[in-house]
Structure prediction request, 442 residues.
Amino acid sequence: MRFVLSAFGLSLVLVSFAACSSAPEGVKNDTNPFGSDGGGGQQTDGGTSAGDGGGDTEGGTGGPGPAFTPDIGLLKTKGGAVVKAPKIVTIVWTQDPNYKTYETLGDNIGGSAYWTTSVSEYGVGVASSGGHVEIAGAPPASMDDGSNNDEVDAFIVKGVTGAPGNGWPVADADTMYMLYLPEATALLNNKADDCPNNNGYHTETTVGANTHVVYGLIASKCHDPSQNALDEATETATHEIAEAATDPHTNSDVAWTGFDADHYAWELFQQRQDEDGDACEFYEDVYYNDSAVGGFVQRLWSNKSAKAGHNPCVPVPPEPYFNVTPLAQEMITTTGTTGLMHTTKGYRIAVGASKTFAVGYYSDAKTEDWNVDVFVGDGFTVPTNPHATASIDTASGNNGTIAKVTVNVTSAPAKGNQVLVTLIASRKTGPQHFFPILVGAY
Ligand SMILES: [Zn+2]
Prediction:
């Protein structure tokens, strides 16, 4: 879990990391060497779902639109194919008390408003049921997805190889196999517990001549002990199904993963977990019960909604969305800890100097005032060596308020020259909204 910093101290808001990585083997459980010192180096975390934030917003409508156009990160395709008309195959053990719910979700999600709202802008159309694989008998005590002996991959390969004689639907370019491990089954990675890294993931494998067999895994045992296993499993499933469709060929031909070059700050803020599910997974207001899908779902990143000043995670919650955006970012060239150069937006500040820049409060409907704080780092953890201080002159406001943020670079980062600064828009209760900004220290 990540802890959110706020004006009210460490508010210990439990936020979810439905957690997945989708990357090729070896990167799949990447502990994510986070670029700037600002990041704290957490890894994805099979965290909890806080559910809807239950905020104190007024729910006003009909107010003016956002006073400022957010200079916000947008997902960008790397050019790979998407699954245009996914056929979702649900693979379950019939001794899993939740297997019917998983089958219903796999059958219903593709025709739901949730699905169309969240993935159509990425070129993914209506999805349909690809059928069910029901496995009788006791589920395995564990499955290991480690690179030494990937039992999950072997299980999928064996099933697809035997199709259709073994009851598995045959894989074609639209088939996505979703494997639901019962709570009785531990997920391991090279014999170590994999739950700290993953609630689930999606990837692809090769079966015969088919080099793009797309599959995903949901490990219900990996739920947070304080959360309902089924709700968290369906949240993870919606995240993985959407990502499997928008970025299916994770080993060979990646598609919608990563933010645009102008907004490298968002890539750092996300710790490079950057598909449409990842980009929303740790916000408090992204989990809700969607009856048309058949369970709790996770909202997913929408470029359209983000750019328009709405909640970037869709379908949007009913409450007005509020946040804060930098107003006149510079183009800067920065170097990450691995030496890679990035030309991107941010602010160039000399070591030992400070810079003051304007940020604008925005909301997409009439709503009560909110607070904005600024933190060095990603807003979740305090960097051990921040290399900067940051302050804001107007810590409360409403749509149209302009505040001045001052960042003072106190020392040079040990490697590279990136310092991440994060604005947090919040009230005493309810969801926090984040806006990362990159400083190039020179
Ligand atoms: Zn993901």
Q: What stands out?
A: Residues 20, 22, 239, 243, 275, 277-278 surround zinc ion (CB under 6 Å). Residues 321 and 360 are 14 Å apart (CA to CA). Residues 1-320 form one domain. Helices lie at 99-108, 113-119, 151-161, 229-246, 264-269, 303-307.
